[in-house]
Design a protein that fits this description.
Structural class: mainly alpha
CATH class of the domain at 46-129: Mainly Alpha
Oligomer: single chain
Strand content: 5-15%
Strand order of the largest sheet: 1-3-2
Helix content: 55-70%
CATH architecture of the domain at 46-129: Orthogonal Bundle
Number of helices: 8
CATH superfamily of the domain at 46-129: Winged helix-like DNA-binding domain superfamily/Winged helix DNA-binding domain
Radius of gyration: 20 Å
Largest sheet: 3 strands, antiparallel
Shape: elongated
Distance between the termini: 38 Å
CATH topology of the domain at 46-129: Arc Repressor Mutant, subunit A
């Protein structure tokens, strides 16, 4: 017999917890279901990359820069990339006219990446694609959507920033 934690959530009857269910196994099943929904079933990254003709890390950089100028070090931290690779990313975005780099007025050794108008439009397109709910989610009842939104908002608020 396969333990419940190893059984994909879709195979468990709706609303039925196993006899051996524990908060840990319930948490594992919930996480597996969320990961499957977001990363496997409805992974929007490929759609973003295709629409923008950019790698997803470049699209992610545009999304981060849409929030305001960032030093190259800040951008690298937000992208979870090393500084040399972040330079490659921004170089490409500059060549495409989606971002520009300037020297900090306070410290000429510090470079600041800024989004251009074209880059802001691309970032908005990426956000639109990423934020489109899958049909199964949109089909949930208003009550279920409100409860799911409440739970997920709480989980996001409880996570330390990375």
């Amino acid at each position: 017999m396969i333990p419940d934690a190893a059984v994909p959530p879709a195979e468990l009857p709706a609303g039925q917890a196993s006899a051996s269910a524990s908060p840990e196994s319930d948490a594992a099943r919930a996480w597996t279901a969320m990961r499957t929904l977001v990363l496997d079933t409805h992974n929007r990254r490929a759609a973003v990359s295709e629409a923008l003709e950019l790698s997803f890390v470049r699209a992610k950089a545009l999304i981060r820069l849409a929030g305001g100028p960032l030093t190259m070090r800040e951008l690298a931290a937000q992208l979870a990339t090393d500084p040399p690779y972040t330079t490659v990313v921004v170089d490409d975005l500059e060549r495409r006219g989606l971002a520009r780099r300037s020297t900090s007025p306070e410290d000429r050794r510090v470079k600041i990446a800024t989004i251009t108008d074209s880059g802001a439009r691309a970032a908005a397109t990426a956000e639109e694609i990423l934020n489109e709910p899958p049909p199964a989610l949109a089909a949930l009842s208003a009550e279920d959507l409100a409860e799911l939104a409440r739970i997920l908002t709480r989980l996001v608020a409880d996570e330390p920033a990375s």
